[in-house]
Amino acid sequence: FLYFPETHGITFRIQISVKELLDTDVLLKLLFHLPVSYPSTLPDISVNSDQLTRAQCMDVKDKLLEQAKKHLSEPMVHDLILWIQQHLKYVIKQSATVCNEKTTLSKETSTEDGIWMLLLHLDHMRAKAKYIKTVEKWASDLRLTGRLMFMGKIILILLQGDKSNIKEYLILQKTSKVDVDSSGKKCKEKMITVLYETKVQSQHKRFQMFEVKEYSTLDELQKEFETAGLTTLFSEFVPPLLK
User: Fold this and answer.
1) Which of 104, 105, 109, 122 is nearest to 159 (CA)?
2) Which of 68, 103, 201, 210 is deepest in the core (most CB within 10 A)?
3) Sequence ranges of the chain with CATH classification 3.30.70.100
């Protein structure tokens, strides 16, 4: 961080390295000017990068300002940096679509033996419909398959996909405002547990899509795991959640 104190506010420069679509590092140079009235007033933002075109830098700036408006009246720079680290690839996706389509095929075949699986437990969902829609969008964006499973008060998310995308999903899950608290205010997910994370083995069935399912009995839920070749995973982690 380089700070340049000024009489009309503070300007500071941040350089962050982000993994881009083609798994190359993009060095983003972000300049934030915080006026004296910040955070009641939006910061001025400048974006530069040797790896991006000027148009792409402008797109990144526009998206950052859009996000900044959502955080008006609260400190936002840290949240903006986290957001662009997670979403850079989607912001510049349109201009890289052709390139991306070519590499996706080769990437998926080359990492076929490197597919990972993640089992998460959520304590509750207050804004259920919105929460489900968010999880479905993340799974789609990150090309993850699996299940969002409800059985009584048990809520489980089972994901399969590229290891880096699984990691990215976890970041989104922990840093985004996905639910509401008891007073109805948007809040981040604080009551999530990673039950299990492993490389997909030969005995595990690959899910073809991401689906949301509700089960009326524990037997129904168990059969879902058994069909996927995950009987051991079920018996080790799910029954204890009922206690």
Assistant:
1) 122
2) 210
3) 115-241
Query: How many CA atoms lie within 13 Å of 79's alpha carbon, on the beta-carbon side?
Result: 18
Q: Burial of 225 by CB count in 10 Å (0-12 exposed, 13-18 middle, 19+ buried)?
A: buried
Q: Which residues of 103-142 are buried (b: 16+ CB within 10 A; e: fewer)?
A: eeeebeeeeeeebbbbbbbbeebebeeebeebbeebbebb
3-state helix, strand, coil in the chain (%, to 5): 40, 30, 25
pLDDT digit string (tens) for 142-200?
899 999 999 998 999 999 998 888 888 888 888 777 666 666 677 666 667 888 888 88
Task: Mention the CATH class of domain 10-96.
Answer: alpha beta
**Closest residue by Cα to residue 133 from 178, 193, 174, 187:** 178
Residue given tokens 């597919």 in the structure block: 115
Residue 69 CB partners (closer than 8 Å, separation 6+): 42
Name the DSSP letter for residue 96.
Answer: G
